[in-house]
Specification:
This protein has eight helices and no strands. Helices cover 60% and strands 0% of the residues. Helix 2 packs across helix 3.
Length: 145
Amino acid sequence: MPRSIQVDRQEFARLWEEGVPSYRIAEHFDIHANTVTKIVSEMKLPSRARQVDVPTLFRLWTQGVAREVICRELGISGSQLSVLKTRYKLPSRPKKPASLGPDPTPEEIAERAAECRARHMAQRRAEDPESSRIKTWRQTNGVSA
């Protein structure tokens, strides 16, 4: 049977209105943090949205900082960042193309092709010459073993 939690409702409401974090309220009344949420609901206290440093959000967003870094800096989740993007009408950020590096030179292309040919031929030499695939190829191309 659940026990009845007795807290000073006025003190509880005062702490809630001052913005004291839920875990601190729980410590103050020696109750579990989930119980704080339950009491808030019972008392019909207004919900508190996490306070976000909006200038920092705008600065990080417009500088193109990664979403994960923004979330870590502001102490919010990715879904909360999406909500803030909509709420504050943050502009869309262009997708950065994958960095593939400089184009290869003709010499590098030729070297890579030679490596691929050598690897392919090594695989072919390792195959069983009596396998049905090789036999079929030899028969169709008129090559004798």
